[in-house]
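Quick log. Single chain, no ligands specified.
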Amino acid sequence: MNGFLKINLASQRDLIDVFTLSNDDIVRHNSFNSNKIELNSHKVWFCKKINDENSLFFIIRTIDDIFVGYVRFDREYGDEPLKSYTITIHLAQAFRCKGFGTKLIMDTSNTVIDQYGSKKIYAYVKKENGASLKSFVKAGYSLIGPDVIKGFDCVKLIYEKNDE
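-> predicted structure:
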C-alpha cells in the first residue's frame, strides 16, 4: 500500500476535494456536527487550518492523483509540555472498509510523533461508528473510556508510541 499512496501536507489545491468529502453523507453522520457545510465558510476554515501552526493536515492521494481522503491532527490547547494532538480522519467512499483507514492512522500518527515531537494523540469516535473504532484499535490506539462530545456519546482513545 505504501507505493500506492502519497501523503502530503494540504495546500490550496485540495480545498474542493476536502469540501466535497466533508459533505459526504456518511462523513456528516459520523461527525460531531452533522450539518452540511457551506462553501464560503469551508474556504475560510480551510485556509485558516492549512496555515495554522497547531494543525497538521495531511492529504492522501493515489500515485495517479486520485483523492483518497485526509488525516488531520489538531494540537490540544493548554498542553505545551506534552504536545498532544487530536486526530480526525475521513476517507472517500471508494477507499472505505478496505484497510486504508488503519494503515493511514498508523502511518500518520507515527509521523506526528517521530517528526513533530508529539507525545500523545487522542481520537474521539462516536460509539455507533464501529468501523472507525475498529480501525483505531487495529492501528495501535488504546481505549481510555467513554466521553461526551457536543452531546454525543463517544469513545476516547489514545496513541503513545513505545520507544523500544
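The mean pLDDT is 90.
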